[in-house]
Structures are given as C-alpha cells and as structure tokens.
Amino acid sequence: MPALNEEDCIGPFIERMRAQLQSLGAFALPSWEIVVVDDGSTDRTRAIVEGYAREDARVRLISGPHRGKGAALRDGMLAAVGEWRFMADADLSMPPDNLPRFLDAALPPGRGAAIVVGSREAPGAQRIGEAWSRHAIGRVFNWVVRLLAVQGIHDTQCGFKLLSARFVDACFPRLRSNGFAFDVEMLSWARDGGWDVQEVGIEWHARGDSRVGLRRGASAFFDVARIGWRVGRQPYGALAYALAGIFAAAIAYDLFRLPVQASDSLGEILDASRSPSVRASFEGALGSAGYLRPLRIAQIKWLYDIADGRYWAVYRGLHAALAVCTVFLFTRALGVRSRTDLGAAALALVVLTGHHTFLGTVQEAFPINHFLEMVLASLLAVNLSLARPGWWVDAAAMLTFAAAALTLESGLLVWVVAVAAWACGLRGISVRGVAGTTLLLAAYFYVRFVVYPTGTPSIGERSTAYVFEVLERTEVERRFAGNPLPLYAYNVLASLGSVLAGEPQRGLFLRPERWLDGSALPRQYLAVIACGVTTALILWAMTTRLVERGWRTLEREDRVALVALPVIAANAAMCYAYTKDDVLSVAGAFYALAAYAAARHAIPAIGASRHRAAAAALVILALAASTAWSIRSAGVHHVLRSQAFRQRNDWAVLPARMRREGTWPDDEDRRRLILKLRADALAMRVPNPQLFPRWANEWWGE
Amino acid sequence: MVGRVTRRTVAWLGVAGMPLAAAGLMALALVMALVRAHPMWREPALTLAEAAALRDAGQVARLVGEGQDPNGRYPVRAGILSRRPLVLTPLEAARAAERPEIIELLVDLGATP
Question: Smaller CB count within 10 Å for chain B: N or C?
C-alpha cells in the first residue's frame, strides 16, 4: 500500500484490512503481511505505521523519499514475499470486505499467472458518492487508454489489484512510470506478455480528497501515449494484419492466374447469357428440385452483366477478392494484442490456409466461389458477435444470414454461429438479433418445404466415397436406397474425421496396409500429424481453460474456440448426403480459430512449465505440427498451379469435344461466348506439371 | 525468471517459427512476381512437338493459333521423350508419349494423321 500523508486513514486502513485478512481464515489465507510504502510523507503517517509494525510482525514499513505512487508501488510489490500480492489505496475507497471477490477470480497457483483488476465498470460494481464530472473524466481517460495502450480493460485506474508473484517478478523490474500512469504501463506489459487479466466489480466510495488534479491528469494522458508507443500494443495487431496480407496476396495472385473453369462454369455462364435479367434468374431458381439457391444464380447473372466481355477479370477478380476478405476477417476475429497472440496468429493462418478443406474451397470456382462466400459470411457473423452490440449489428447479422441461406445450404451455419456465439457469452449480436435470425431460419424452411417444395437431394444424386471405395451413383442407390441411415451416419462421422484428424479426406480412408508399409504419400502423413496434434492441443486447451477459469471468466478467444465446436459439428451434419472438402469450408475456418485459442494458451503454459522434459517435448510437438501446417499451406499454391494447367487444357479441347458429342451450340452468340472464354484461357501463361519435381506432388498433391 | 522467459520464447518460436518462415518465402515470391520473375508461375518455352509430348493441350492450341504448322517438324529436347534430343512432328511426339487426347486435338487443328 503506497502512502503519502495519509495520517487520517492509515490507522483505520491497517485495522480493517487486518481484521478482514484474519476473518478469511487459515484455509483461505495461510499467511499474510501488510506492506506500507511511505512515499516521503511529511505528516505522522510513518510514525503511525511504525507503531503498528512494533506490535504486529505482519505489518512492515518501507520508507523512502517522495518519487510518486508508481515508484512506491513498485518498491512494495518487489519487497513483498507472498505468492499473491494485493495493491490497495489507503483511503479505503474500497471496503476490505470486497477482498474475497479478488480471491475468487484468481487462478490456482502454478497454473499460469493472473492479474485481477478491481473495476468500477465491471458487472457487479457500485460507485457511491461520485460526482458526475469526475466520473466523466475517468471515462474519457479510459477511452484514451484503450485507444492508445491497453485494450479490453474498462477501469485501469482503480487502485485495487491482485497480482501473482510470477507476474510481479517478471514485469515490475521493467516498469518506469512513477506517477498515475503506472497502472496503465503495468497492464500494457501484462497484455504484451499474454498474461491473463480479469476485471471484477467492486464497491467503491468516492473520497472528496482525490489526488488527481488537472495538472497530474494532463500529465497522465501524455504518459499513456508514451506507454502505448513504448510497449507497442498496436504493432502486434498491425503485424498480424501484415502477415495475413502476405497469405492473402499470395492466394489472390494464384487465383488470378487461373482460367475460368470450363467444366462447372460454362453451363452457368451460358445460362446467365440467356437470362433476361437478374430478377428473372432469381425467380427461375426458386423452384429448383432439391435446392433453394436463388441468390447463387442471381449473382452469376449479375456478374455476367457487369463483366461486359471481361469474364475472366470479373469472375476471377471476385474469387480473389473473396479470398482476401476471408483471410482479413479471420485475422480480425483473432484480435491480436500481444506477442503471444502474434505467434498464435501465425500458426492459425497456416492452419486456415493449409487445411485441406481450404484447398478444396479455393479450387472450387463454379464460376463464383460460393463456398468461400459461406466462409466469409460465417466469419462476418463471428466478428459481429465480437462487436459492440447495437441495432446495426443485429441488422447486419440478419442480412448476412438471409444472403447466405439463399445462396447455399451452408449459409445456415451463419445462424449456428450467431446462436453459439450468444450462448458462449459473445453478445455483439443481441438476443434480438439472434431471435430475428431464428425467425429468418424458420422462414427459410417454410419457403423451402412449403411454398416452393424443393425437397432435399436424393440418395444416388452423385457418387460418394464409402470407407475404402468410391461408389458410383447406381451403386449408392442399390446399397442404401432402402436404408440410407448407415450412409448418412458414415458421411457425418467421416466429415468430422476429415476436419479434426485429417482422415478420411473426401470420405475415403487410406487403406491400413498403405500406412503400415510406408506407401502412403508424405502429404497424407502430414495431414494426420498436423490435424492430430492440433486437435489434441485444442482439446487440452479447452479443458484446462474451463477447469482453471470456469465458464464465467473465460477470455474472448476461448469463447470463440467454444463457438467452433457446434459450427464444426453442424457443418459435418450438413454433409450427410456426401462429403466434399469445399462443403466443409466453414468447419475448417473455425477449426483454425480454435487452434489460435489453443496456441495462445499453450505458449505461456509451456513457458511456465516446471518440468523441462515435458516442456521440451511440447515444443517439439508444436514445431512438428506448425511445420506440417506450413508445408500444407505452401502446397495450396502448387495445387492451384496444376489446376491452372488442367483448366487451360480443358478449354483447348472443348470445341472439338462438344462437336463430337453434338452439344456445340447452334446459336451464334453462345458460340462466340465459348470462343471468347477459350481465348482468354489459352492466353494465360501457366506452368506444366510434367516439369514439376516429383517430390512436389508427393508432399503437396496433384 | 530468466529461464522462464527463455522457455516462453522457445515455445513461441516452436509455434510461430515455421509459419513465419513460410510467410517470408511467400513474400519473396510476390516481390519477384512484381518484376515478372515469379519462381512458381513461369510457362516454359516449349516447341509444338514438346508441348504435345508433355500433354500441354493449351500450349498446343495457342501455338497453332499463332500460326505454327501442326505438320511441321520441331526439336524435342533430351529428357522429354528420350535421353537424346529428337526432331519430330507434333503427332509423332504425342504418339511417342501416348497422349491420345493430344493426338485428337492435333487432328482437329489440322494435323495430318
């Protein structure tokens, strides 16, 4: 407790604090001490404390010249010997009986560090007797602090905080502020180092003799700016975006080198050329058998109209833009604020781009990559759930759901994200927004099954993998038409396995003998290693966080990781009819979000581990997994190059093939369109995979 | 304290080191792309016969479209069809490489079977 001329309250403070500490009992508090740091008092403060210290060995006095509250706190904290160290103002603005609130929120010793901040803004807080002007100044100051130095803490200046000895020993020697910005500097370093920080609401009584005057307050503002610059809170977030920019730009570059796909796109583009308008395309798609995707068809028509002959530029341009936006929204959802976060974000980005569901997604072209749109919509939903609540957030969530649901069935996952986020305590989308989205979901099902009875995809609509073999449509019908449940159950479980374990991919297991005799390709081992280690890390992190912190005090990132679980499960359930990497695109992205939260927890946990051997083993595992993911992420570019070659070849042989099959159009406009698309494709410069090194196909695929 | 900080740094590097290295390589490739020297997106300079041997239907169609004779004879570098360099027509090269789809394409583009 720092003290400067506190003769009126130091005695009552020691008496009440001593009584409170004794009342907690030996079980809750085996031993304690009160350390008073006299900051050069000129009244009777020192004499009073010396009196208490003579009669009670648990009261200590440290004296020194006047240097400021921050310096006094630093000396006192470093001189204290307890495993937990509580800093308090002497004026008893917080009654000592609030102390148990801090102890309840503190972590068990040895499981990681924690800082518990007494807050006048957190739930359960009470401000008593405070003038509105002082309150307003405090809010402005906190806004500046959150803008420049420390995000996410709504009351940095309350003088009551519980700190672990680990944190004090690691951080306090580097603190330089001596004045009122001491708390800001301390919390900035806490964030930078990835230490857990929690706020607990306290009962706070305003005292009329506040030491915060105009001059000191102004000085504190400058100190905050200096701290923000020095501790560098902002650069970590900016660095994360820069890293994301590299990944996004690399993928966008590759996508721009791809011709428009002939096989899946030509028919759609030809239909768009025949449609009289976007509205006609939308309405025409309403009654399709098995699907309700009118916005998908309308988008293709809209882009066709605005392309005005520049089809490759517009369709591929949109594809590249979707990929860039997806990576950036993903990075935004991470919320990088510290060095630890940045390291975890680097891993999360290679998990996002290295997962085979992402590769399957970016390969899809159609001519618009609607599966990538669904990833984007789901990431937008999670970002909305992390935003400050407001009517516009709810409206945006509902609009996002409506657009996504009318584009692809995977768009229903936006509703799953909204509900799961709300249930996990992310309340950016309010209960009103969740209710509105749920109403839209009900309307979707009503339109799909009552107004336009589109039904569901029939069994045998397409071929599908089943355990070790690929079944053609007729075989699927023959085996499962009578009882499709085994096929549906397999597809759902296989989808879960694909996302979480890297096997099976696209529903097809690699035969066991190939794993045993070593004939499996390196990329197959990489998939299993990467996914296996990461999934184990995610499960470990979720379990330990829940046990350590309990549900109510989980951090933002942990809650996002919890949202990932139902999203992955729901996405897998949607694959009941058949499994395909791009259909699992949303699950893959949320898997990467969960990996971020896990890595964020693992880095300080490894650092705090008391067992060298265990820590070394964990570092080796982390290195193995991150290396596997990095290799897989690099493989995306290799696969897209191979795909470009294949797609250009498809266009080269297309007219002759269509003539032989009798499908070459009679209409001159359609012929001209096909030849234009073909000419665009043939003009593209693409590498030849026959000239790629063999190891590239073994490690990266294709 | 020092040991714990160092161990945390090692843990950080274990998690983030390789992804950052991968990002660095990607950034380098992108910079090279700005000077039109992207290491992974270069189309090799192939003759019509070489393109036929290497199943490059797109290259075959483009070269013929640019005016190259589908019945002419073109050099084929060593390592593509044999250890020795050869001079072949595109049809001969496609037959030697067992590329029926390229043979079909060449015939469609005017090659004499």
Answer: C
3-state helix, strand, coil in chain A (%, to 5): 65, 5, 30
A145, A224 contact by CB (below 8 A): yes
ipTM rounded to 2 decimals: 0.93
A-B contacts (CB, under 8 Å)? 158
Asked if B16's CB is within 8 angstroms of A346's CB, the reply is yes
- β-strand partners of A35: A60
In the block, residue with structure tokens 């970590």: A236
What is the spatial distance between Cα B59 and Cα B55, in angstroms, rounded to a whole number? 9
In chain A, which residues have pLDDT < 70? 26-28, 107-113, 147-148, 194, 208-220, 225, 228-234, 553, 702
Write the CB contacts of A104 (distance below 8 Å, at least 6 apart in sequence): A200
Closest chain B CA to residue A607: B8
Search chain B and give the residue with CA nearest A243: B23
Pick from A115, A74, A116, A122: which is nearest to A99 by CA?
Answer: A116
B8: which chain A residues are within 8 Å (Cβ-Cβ)?
A: 603-604, 606-608
Comparing CB atoms, the residue among A169, A249, A349 nearest residue B30 is A249
- C-alpha distances (whole Å) from A446 to each of A30, A136, A325, A451 are 63, 50, 32, 7
Task: Check residue A97 and report its DSSP letter.
Answer: G
Residue B105 to residue B90: CA distance in whole angstroms: 11
The reply to whether residue B22 touches residue A630, judged by beta carbons under 8 angstroms, is: yes
Residue A196 tokens read as 């857990």
DSSP string across chain B: -HHHHHHHHHHHHHHHHHHHHHHHHHHHHHHHHHTT--SS-------HHHHHHTT-HHHHHHHHHTT--TTS-EEE-TTTSSSS-EEE-HHHHHHHTT-HHHHHHHHHTT---
Question: What pLDDT is attached to residue A481?
Answer: 85
The secondary element (H helix, E strand) that includes residue A376 is: helix A370-386
Q: Look at B61 and A652 and tell me if their CB atoms are within 8 Å.
A: yes
State how far residue A204 is from chain B, nearest Cα, in angstroms. Answer: 35
Write out the two tokens for A323: 């990929």
Beta bridge partners of B87: B75
d(CA A171, CA A162): 14
Number of H helices, E strands in chain A: 29, 11
Token pair of A51 as six digits? 């009196």
Helices (DSSP H) in A520-665: which residue ranges? 522-549, 556-574, 585-608, 612-661
Q: pLDDT tens, A110-131?
A: 444 478 999 888 878 888 888 8
Scanning A164-223 for CB atoms below 8 A from B yields 166, 169-170
E strand map for A78-153: 84-87, 114-119, 126-128
* Cβ pair A685:B41 closer than 8 A: yes
